[in-house]
Amino acid sequence: MTDSARDPLLDIRAGDRWLVAVAHPDDESFGCGSTIAHAAVQGAEVTLACATRGEAGEAVQGPVGHGDLGVVREGELRRAATRLGITRVELLGHRDSGFDGELPVGALCAAPVAEVADALLGLLRELRPEVLLVLDGSDGHRDHLHIGAAAREAVTRMDARPLLVEHCLPNSLLRRWLEEMRELRPDTAYHALDPAGLGRGDTEITDVLDTTAVLDRREGAIAEHRSQVSPFDGLSDELRRAFLTTDHLARVELRGAEESPGPEHV
Q1: By CB neighbour count within 10 A (0-12 exposed, 13-18 middle, 19+ buried), where does 27 fall?
Q2: What's the pLDDT tens digit per position in 134-165?
Q3: Quick one: CA torsion of 7, 246, 75, 79, rounded to 10 degrees?
Q4: How far apart are CA 204 and CA 163, in angstroms?
Q5: pTM
Q6: The CATH fold of domain 17-170+202-251
Q7: Could you tell me which residue, 239 or 63, shows the higher pLDDT?
Q8: Among 4, 49, 92, 176, which residue has the fewest nearby CB atoms (within 10 Å)?
Q9: Gene3D superfamilies, alphabetically (predicted)?
Q10: Which pLDDT tens digit goes with each residue over 97-110?
Q11: Where are the domains of the chain?
Q12: CA-to-CA dists, residue 82 to 39, 63, 165, 222, angstroms
């Protein structure tokens, strides 16, 4: 753990340890890839915990979309991790829950939050990271929300806590995206989306990182996920850069140890 006088998010040093917890392969690249690469370039040792192998993803047509999708996506994950500078990948062994519908056997969302938190707590105990990074789940995907809840519980069960940080997409940026999508694809369901409900409220963002210097790493990682359609495909160059060169983060304030359920002394 870092000393209390240093801000581990803004003052990253060689040898710092970060744990990134995501639900699916490509979350690390499509989601928080620039922040990961930024930390790695500054010298942090980044471990990625991925809860599933993304079996419920919608594979693109062609050779990369055939065969066992979980195997394909795990390979993509490991190659993308190398591009971002991640030093270690841990798979937690759950199945992809899908966005909605009946849960498959072994699905992440079928596992109690406490059980998923146990796995993350084991990594937190081993690594003692300065920072734990997750997606904020504001896209509504139930797996993203589930792994985020597990991360919160795991941290509250520690005495020496890492800084818990959520990667966010601010409402102002997603409003720009919606305007562009409505113009590019006027016949799609984008017309029905409520701009006010998109992403995270801008006032909740606590930190904004300029990640222009690691754009090549982020782009390389995104390109490794060939079985999936990138959410940035088809965007104008200006909007694409807005997504990929500026990361928006929110620090999570957790309850005191005396209020948290079942504290762990580590």
Answers
A1: buried
A2: 999 999 999 999 999 999 999 999 989 999 99
A3: -80
A4: 16
A5: 0.91
A6: Rossmann fold (3.40.50)
A7: 239
A8: 4
A9: LmbE-like
A10: 999 999 999 999 99
A11: 17-170+202-251
A12: 14, 23, 22, 12
